[in-house]
């Protein structure tokens, strides 16, 4: 892996995750209480011993940049030439923003070339999965491939969001279909499944860089790896498929694109469950993130009807569950839930204060939101739409502009801390 450069694409606008991406980049959206989405891919990099990584950012990247700088800079050894480094758009070869995934890499071609890597691994910063990229590199080298792309088997009725990959029995890629409504292609390894692209590509550098230059000069190109680069390489260079090997070690393969509110919500609900499919507690494949200096989570009061407790939930450090009940939910850092409140099947971001007697369910509460006493969210969609964002599936998202709460500190908070 010392001859491999990871290029992590983290510049997408993330429209489908609105309003969570209104003020932050999609890879910077919190996940599972204490992580950001990008932490999952970066943890895969470190666990795979990939320690030369460029992160290409673009939209609303301030919080993402800060998270990478403070959380991931200390992980690698700079004195050994290792780095996890952010590359914002510099317009060295173009006067425009990134026009596609391939154009994002092309616009940083000088920075990439200066590292003189033998291989370039293209990654995305908004997927949840566990993968050892070193195994993919081993197959790439052993097969003599010029390009290797990671593939995932899915059912034929699930192919429409994906790029379908036609694979021969030898593992060589013979064709593509870009997000078809249906396909007759089947996996040679399982005739009931279809192989689709995971958006993870491994190139020999001497193949990729000239192709990026050609693509940049093509006025008809969308400058996208899946749409343009890979189809143009097909038949000219040896292209292999790498069957996803899941380090999550569950019966079913786990790979999630959390680019929509519903997919993001379900992935968080999974990790809060009794037996989550995505295991955060596997010490052999640790998930890393930025460290925050908060005290441990705290649960107070044990009176009848006023018991501080969390059931089937994740509660991050610095949070206080004060005489309230949390069920099937994810609480990030520094959350305060006051007495007699009930929170069910919800995701609460950092620095949120939920007042007394609140009832919240099937909702996402963005950071720095202060919910006034007695507020009810998630029980009546028509009422929620008057004040909050409600997705087509009925998921309520509360952001700072939608909250009417003026005072960030509740009366109970002052009373309980007066001593």
From TrEMBL:
It is an enzyme of class 2 (transferase). Alpha-D-glucose 1-phosphate binds at residues 98, 163, 178-179, 197. The record marks 58, 97 as: Could play a key role in the communication between the regulatory and the substrate sites. It comes from Granulicella sibirica. GO terms for biological process: glycogen biosynthetic process. It catalyses: alpha-D-glucose 1-phosphate + ATP + H(+) = ADP-alpha-D-glucose + diphosphate. HAMAP family: GlgC (MF_00624). Pathway: Glycan biosynthesis; glycogen biosynthesis. Gene3D superfamilies: Hexapeptide repeat proteins (2.160.10.10), Spore Coat Polysaccharide Biosynthesis Protein SpsA, Chain A (3.90.550.10). Belongs to the bacterial/plant glucose-1-phosphate adenylyltransferase family. Its EC number is 2.7.7.27. It comes from the Bacteria. Residues 6-271 form the Nucleotidyl transferase domain. GO terms for molecular function: ATP binding; glucose-1-phosphate adenylyltransferase activity. Residues 295-398 form the Glucose-1-phosphate adenylyltransferase/Bifunctional protein GlmU-like C-terminal hexapeptide domain. InterPro entries: ADP-Glc_PPase, ADP_Glu_pyroP_CS, GlgC_bac, GlmU/GlgC-like_hexapep, NTP_transferase_dom, Nucleotide-diphossugar_trans, Trimer_LpxA-like_sf. Homotetramer. Keywords: ATP-binding, Carbohydrate metabolism, Glycogen biosynthesis, Glycogen metabolism, Nucleotide-binding, Nucleotidyltransferase, Transferase. This is Glucose-1-phosphate adenylyltransferase. Involved in the biosynthesis of ADP-glucose, a building block required for the elongation reactions to produce glycogen. Catalyzes the reaction between ATP and alpha-D-glucose 1-phosphate (G1P) to produce pyrophosphate and ADP-Glc.
